[in-house]
TrEMBL record:
PROSITE patterns according to UniProt: NEUROTR_ION_CHANNEL (PS00236)
GO molecular function terms listed in the Swiss-Prot or TrEMBL record: extracellular ligand-gated monoatomic ion channel activity; transmembrane signaling receptor activity
Protein's UniProt keywords contain Transmembrane helix: yes
PANTHER family with a match to the protein in the record: NEUROTRANSMITTER GATED ION CHANNEL
InterPro entries in the record: LGIC_TM_5-HT3, Neur_chan_lig-bd, Neur_chan_lig-bd_sf, Neur_channel, Neuro-gated_channel_TM_sf, Neuro_actylchol_rec, Neurotrans-gated_channel_TM, Neurotransmitter_ion_chnl_CS
The protein's name: Si:dkey-49c17.4
Organism of origin: Dicentrarchus labrax
Keyword tags: Cell membrane, Ion channel, Ion transport, Ligand-gated ion channel, Membrane, Postsynaptic cell membrane, Receptor, Signal, Synapse, Transmembrane, Transmembrane helix, Transport
Purpose: Forms serotonin (5-hydroxytryptamine/5-HT3)-activated cation-selective channel complexes, which when activated cause fast, depolarizing responses in neurons.
Catalytic activity: Na(+)(in) = Na(+)(out); K(+)(in) = K(+)(out); Ca(2+)(in) = Ca(2+)(out)
UniProt family annotation: Belongs to the ligand-gated ion channel (TC 1.A.9) family.
Length: 373
């Protein structure tokens, strides 16, 4: 800080070539300057001396560590660029009593600041602009010098720790369409991925500043990914419900066919019992000798053989019918049902929709982050 004291000046040649000297700061008057955005007092001790030049200029150098308030615009977080102001003005003096001017222009201030900043951590210093303004505080007009500091956030850490994991979860949810719908593995996998994205949202809530008027794009990115995964989960639930209808109908048909086969088996058992009973009657003699019953036995045995052949052919026909029914049942079980065919169509249509929606969403997010507004 440099100001002009009209009451101090000398010719260096008259004083052995002395062009400047130092004095304690409490000897001469100093401007009462303050920084409007400062929220905490500087704890560093001020410089105890000032420098007086032969032309009347007085210079004071104070190194300060400032804690200032700056409105954060986190709409494009973590690719945001922030502009913070440091406004220097007098506390009690008006424009007529004190005029403030910038010492260096914007380019010189930027170059000088870059030389001083040897290490930059989370923020990258882009530049600094300096302007002189006149403000009217309810009729009290003052001059002030405004330094606008432009900084950019280092985004690589947030890309690796947040954006890429959410993108990987989205890809895993897309790959879950390769899992079969017959079991519950697909549903459990999708729920696990959805819970992982929920944990990422909790982390985002902790690292994201809350001083923005607009919704941050990273929150839109997270909610959009969560919405796509939720739609995928709902589609899986619907598909499993439709496949369950086919399973229920097949179980009912199997129970009916089993009851029919049991009825056919009972009928065959009754016919076999009749055959055994008839054969026993023919074999038992009523007291006659074998020689006396020989002609009758020959005639009876031929009739009995014909009946046996007829009964055997009937049994074979019933067996063929049973085997045919069993084979048809196996074919129907192997053949996909009505709802299974519909679920395949639903899976294909939703997969195409999911890929298109995810691609358009990611393109929109990239375009929004790269836009100037």
């Amino acid at each position: 800080m440099v100001w002009q004291n009209e009451f101090i000046s000398w010719n260096p040649q008259d004083l052995c070539g002395i062009e400047k000297f130092t004095l304690p700061t409490d000897v001469l008057w100093k401007p009462d300057l303050t920084i409007e955005e400062m929220t905490e007092r500087d704890k560093a001790p001020p410089s105890p001396y000032l420098t007086v030049y032969s032309n009347g200029h007085i210079q004071v150098e104070n190194d300060q560590v400032l804690v200032s308030a700056c409105r954060m615009r986190v709409h494009k977080f973590p690719f945001d660029i922030q502009r913070c102001n440091l406004s220097i003005k007098s506390v009690i003096h008006s424009e007529k009593e004190m005029q403030l001017f910038e010492t260096f222009n914007s380019s010189t201030s930027t170059k000088w600041s870059q030389e001083l900043m040897r290490i930059q951590y989370e923020w990258l210093f882009i530049g600094m602009t300096v302007c002189n303004e006149t403000v009217d505080n309810f009729g009290f007009i003052q001059k002030r010098v405004v330094y606008t500091i432009t900084i950019k956030r280092r985004s690589i850490l947030y890309i690796i720790n947040f954006l890429l994991p959410v993108l990987f979860f989205l890809c895993l949810d897309l790959a879950s369409f390769l899992i079969s719908d017959s079991g519950g593995e697909k549903l459990g996998f999708k729920i696990t991925v959805l819970l992982a994205v929920t944990v990422m949202q909790l982390i985002l809530n902790e690292i994201l500043p809350t001083s923005s008027d607009r919704v941050p794009l990273i929150a839109v990115y997270c909610i959009g990914s969560f919405g796509l995964m939720m739609l995928s989960l709902l589609e899986t639930i619907v598909v499993m419900n439709l496949r369950g209808r086919d399973s229920a109908s097949k179980n009912n048909e199997a129970e009916k066919n089993q009851s029919l086969s049991e009825d056919c088996g009972d009928k065959r058992d009754k016919d076999n019992n009749k055959l055994i009973y008839c054969a026993s009657l023919c074999d038992v003699s009523s007291g006659e000798t074998p020689s006396e019953q020989l002609p009758v036995a020959k005639k009876g045995s031929s009739n009995q053989l014909m009946e046996d052949f007829e009964n055997l052919s009937d049994e074979l026909k019933e067996l063929v019918k049973t085997l045919t029914l069993f084979l048809n049942l196996r074919k129907e079980e192997e053949k996909p049902g009505y709802w299974n065919r519909k679920t395949k169509i639903i899976n294909k249509v939703f997969f195409i929709f999911y890929v298109i929606a995810a691609t358009l969403f990611l393109v929109f997010m990239i375009f929004s982050w790269n836009s100037e507004t």
